[in-house]
Structure formats: C-alpha cells, structure tokens
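Pilot study result, target chain (222 residues):
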Amino acid sequence: MKQTSILDIISPIMIGPSSSHTAGAVRLGLLAKNIYGKIPQKITFKLYNSYALTGKGHGTEKGLLAGVLGLAVDDRRIKNIFSDDIAKNIEYKFEYQENFKKHPNSVDFIFEDDKTMKIYGESVGAGEVCIKEINGFSVKLTGKYNTLMIVYKDIPGMISQVSGLIQTQNINIASLHCDRYAKGEEATMCISIDGDLENDVIEAVKAIDKVYFVSYIKKLEE
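Predicted structure:
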C-alpha cells in the first residue's frame, strides 16, 4: 500500500493533516498575487509562528510560492515547485520569525518590482484565508468575492463616486471597508461585490481625480 504523504493535501484529493499549512498557503499566495496584479520579479516571504516553525514539513513554503506564481491548489506542480521552470524567473527568499501578536499561521508577502507592496495574511483553517493588511492599511479580503481595491487621497465624495460607477452595472455591494493614515491623507477602499465588473467601469475608477492605484481582485475558486 502506498504511504500517503502530508503533501497530498495539495493534490486534487486534498487529504492531509493540515489544510491551513498547505492548501491555505497556496490560497494566500494566489490572493496576494491577485492583489499585486501580476507575478513579481522579486518577493520575500516572512513566515510567523507555526508557519515558521513547522511550515517546511507541511509544504507551506511550496504552497506560498506556488500561489504567487498563479498555481491553483490542485496543481501537481506544487510538490516540485522549487525545481519547476515556472519558478526560475522569480527571485524569492523565506524569512522566519516568532511574533505572538500575529496569528499562528501568518505571513508577510513583500513584493518588489516596479512598485513595492507589503501584504499580510492569515490562514485561518480548513483552507480558509484572510488578507488583513496591505501597506499598513487594515483590510479584510477572504477571496470569496470579486473585490475592487483602491488607494486614493482622503477627500469628501470619493466613496459615492466609486459606488456610483458600480451601480451603473446594477451590481450589489456585499461589503465596503475603508482605512486611512489621517484625515486628508492616503486612504484605501475595498469593495466586495456580488457580480463581476466590466473593464470600462474599472478604467473609469482609475480616471477619478486623486485615485492613485486600483486593483480588481477576482475571487478564488472554491
């Protein structure tokens, strides 16, 4: 009888002792890549607590890298991702830290390319994940909804401008989360929706005065 590997959790059957360390890691990486908008040239993964201490044996590092490279959780290339051709054009490294103010299964993604972005996420169990912070801003992205993320100058009327454009497609807003450094300074807006935005709406949001960055984040496959 073939012995089951703990890495079999990332096979299509998805069996194994820790979905949070393996399948969750892939989903975190994929969601972080979708937020950044592309596969970066350089990335640092900073693993915390249980991810740092036991992640290597559970395939966490492989999962995180595979997700950032755009692989789905059932892709068989994950098991050999470090030697796969898909990983040869990206510079990556892993760092490890104990910080008990952070979730046991958590990671910072530090993207470095034409833009630098730091994304903090947690694997909360049963393959479920949550992105909690982007460049110091508080967010809540689970990958369950298509989400429009905007970085902009905190001025009156910005929320109504963006929501008005979404309403032109008769799409319902499932949730809206805003954060800012200070009044009148840089702010973020994350709008999760029930439908799918047309590209012309996304381009119209980008064209709003004082909008600095827009990312349309597709929901993860179940």
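One observation from the pilot: Helices lie at 23-36, 49-58, 60-68, 158-167, 199-206. A full batch analysis is planned for the follow-on phase.
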